Amino acid sequence: MFLAGPVTDEQTRGLYGKPSVSDTFDCSHPIPPGSKQNIEYLQNRGVTHFKVLLSWAHLLPTGFPNQPQQAVVTCYKTLLKQLLEVGLQPLVVLHGSTAPDTLRSR
């Protein structure tokens, strides 16, 4: 099975019958506790891959590669580590449409 992320409210609401955990896969905020259980749930349901959408605007808000947003880098590293620990293969996609204006102007 292939799961394209990030997970939407509608997709996650039914997992446990409780409110959405969609922020788990949004690195504009730290990954909340309990996200690994959600990833394990996906793996237990037969999911083999997870699409991780990297946001230029979150990673490099200034557009300069030597000035990454460290909290976002850490978040993505944590997410990738959690995926690999439970056996999900991350498919990393860099979103060109979210490039910061300073990067686009170059």
UniProtKB/TrEMBL annotation:
Organism name: Zoarces viviparus (Viviparous eelpout)
Pfam families reported in the protein's UniProt record: Glyco_hydro_1 (PF00232)
Cited InterPro entries: GH, Glyco_hydro_1
Source species, domain of life: Eukaryota
Disordered as annotated region, ranges: 1-21
Protein name: Beta-glucosidase
GO molecular function: hydrolase activity, hydrolyzing O-glycosyl compounds
SUPFAM superfamilies: (Trans)glycosidases (SSF51445)
Record-linked Gene3D superfamilies: Glycosidases
Protein's GO biological process: carbohydrate metabolic process
